[in-house]
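Explain the record.
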Amino acid sequence: MKKKALAAFIIILAVLSSGCIEEKGTSPTTSSTENTSSMTTSSSGGITFPEDASPFGNLSLELKAPDCASGWFKVTVVITNVGNNTVLVLKPISMITLHFKLYDENGSELEYRGPEPTYLPLKDQDVAVLKAGDSLEKTFTLNTQFWTTENGTYTLLVLYDTRDVKVDTSKPVWRGRLEAEANVTLGECG
């Protein structure tokens, strides 16, 4: 069992460090000026969450993508708490809680051929606290070679889906599915 867990960890580490999918910026941001630390560490080294944090809330998803892309390109995903209470959410992790899909002009989904890591159950360090109005923003680097494409306009769909993600956390987290999309022209950018 320990060998399988170690192998899964090594696969995740190799994919994330290979540059295939680069992940940056997982700190919650807020529109107010108060300090909003997402978690605190107890003296024993464990993570403690705010008492008012809940797995229930209203979230929105936004995708920021370039109008035109060729080869490697960056997209930013923003998860915002649009409700009135503090919500515990799983961080957007590529191919685990976050999936990218590409559709051609006819609406047909293209086959994804990019990296697909396996993972261990997500832990407390994979959870973010979003107070009312806070956002969690993360940038990913994708490659047009993850799909077989020709020059043209495509719809890039991002799917944040935590319904079936395995977790081993000290408190329950938000479970649900959100989608956002953007049109991207792939090929020669002028």
Q: What stands out?
A: Residues 1-27, 29-45 have pLDDT under 50 and may be disordered. Residues 59 and 82 are 5 Å apart (CA to CA). The longest strand covers residues 72-81.
